[in-house]
Structure prediction request, 585 residues.
Amino acid sequence: MSLLIGAWTLGLILSMLALGVFISFRVFHFPDITADGSLTLGAAVSATLIVQGLSPALATAAGFAAGMAAGAVAATLHTRFQINGLLAGILVMTALFSINLFIMGRSNVPLISQATLVTSAEQFGRRLVGARPSLRVLGWELTIRDVSLLLVSLAGALVTGCLLYVFLRTNLGTAMRATGDNNQMIRALGVNDGNMLVLGLALSNGLVALSGALLAQYQGFADVQMGIGMVVWGLASVIIGEALVGGQQLGLIIAGAVMGSVLFRLLVAVALRWGLDPNYLKLITAAFVFAALVLPGGLRKWNERKARLAHAPDR
Amino acid sequence: MLQIADIYKVFHRGTPNEVRALEGVSLDLEEGSFVVVVGSNGSGKSTLLNAIAGACTVDRGSLRLDGQDVTRWSEHRRASLIGRVFQNPFSGTAPNLSIGENLALASRRGLSRRLGWALGGRLHAQMRETVARLNMGLEDRLANPIATLSGGQRQALTLLMATWLKPKLLLLDEHTAALDPKSADQVIRLSEQLITSEKLTALMVTHSMHQAASLGDRLIMMHRGRVIHDFRGAEKGRLRSDDLLARFEQVRRADRLDESAAELLRRYYV
Prediction:
């Protein structure tokens, strides 16, 4: 049970990654690989600041801000210098690898025995239930730590999702969505589409870095390798989410991305429990995303061909 | 309202594909005039519209709009003065956003966009009322995405969007060319109605000789990047589509003559 709760919590923390990837890939149709680097950047900045004694909340906010800066740089490379979007992301991601090492001073910063948002959440939970070491819910024995982390991350994911929804329905957010949809139209309506992309990718990478900052505090360390493959994980969550909600409305898609992230982590947890070698995880995720991208089109063609054959005159 | 002074535009300069799209176009549009632009393919009429809108910058010459020199203004900055409808019905609207959201975007053309709610209650009521005038039943479908609309409906909506805030200049770039005859007729009538009732200054490019003859108070014929005819007032009023076709035929014949003359010269001297 602890395993499943852990997967839920991890899924909710990584839902912010999924929301970030949703902005770049779905709102802007921009294949932003920067996220691999900015996730680690968020973790590195917040972990280093926490070790230096800054309050965990401020350190996490600093991680978010650092991610925004990284996203803004990637977008500027694309808009000001006309560098291909994919390449702009790769450049920033590669540069971030060195920057992250520089920030942390080494490849790994442990956070065990530090006061973090995770320990705050745990204390908050203990204050609520008193001195009991564990809770019984539906016959399961759950530790206070697990339950309070789950609830706090659930609240965090809900608040983030709602804020993003509200933002995307404002004048600014609507212009942002229109930029991704049809930039010729939005320019004709007086919006600087380059600036919109900078702002959008800043927001996207800010969310990804926030996810990284929380992930580092949850797992108890920041590591320079922790971001590798994260874009694909986020994309997998968004795709699962779209399949789950099956609608095109903004609120549904955002809720779907959060749910998709949780379901994805649950699937991973179950697969690992059944003895899947963790080394294969990224290969399987990549194969899954490939299938999710190709299958709908392939199925449609297959159906069309079947329909054509069915209507073909007898020879 | 609009003063174009001797503008030039060359694409792919210095390559075998060099195109001299505009070769010294000058044009002066009075406030409230409705000017129709005709010309054969490659005559530079679309480039002229793009140069005015800022989608391409001119190599030489200047553009003044509403008393301001806009020659160096970016496309999105000029949008505060200009409303546009494109040839492609897919170009003027954001397909995955709802009808209401598209109109809301247009209601802030050229204004700042901050964290105010995009679809306020008052704006929504105003939208229902305005869209109802199209008689397309769209007022009950404001929450539907644009992708569910036909080309004609999109162009009608784009027209409403371009004129939601009264533009100093309305640019229509063959905006009915991609529509079926019935929708084209509907959209052209809506355009005329909006231009007349709002007293808009408009510049319309068209391929249809019928539209060119029946609409507007001034007609400009372009050829090879130049304005070759400029009919106004009573002269424009007398023009029929047959007259226009005759003029085109004249131009074509003159062109052929030029070519054969060039061929002759080449044979003798090269």
About this structure: Residues 241-269 of chain B form the longest helix (29 residues). Strands of chain B lie at 2-11, 19-29, 34-39, 60-65, 68-69, 82-85, 169-173, 202-205, 218-223, 226-232. The interface with chain A takes residues 53, 74-77, 79-80, 82, 84, 86, 90-97, 101-102, 104-106, 108-111, 113-119, 145, 161-162 of chain B (CB under 8 Å).
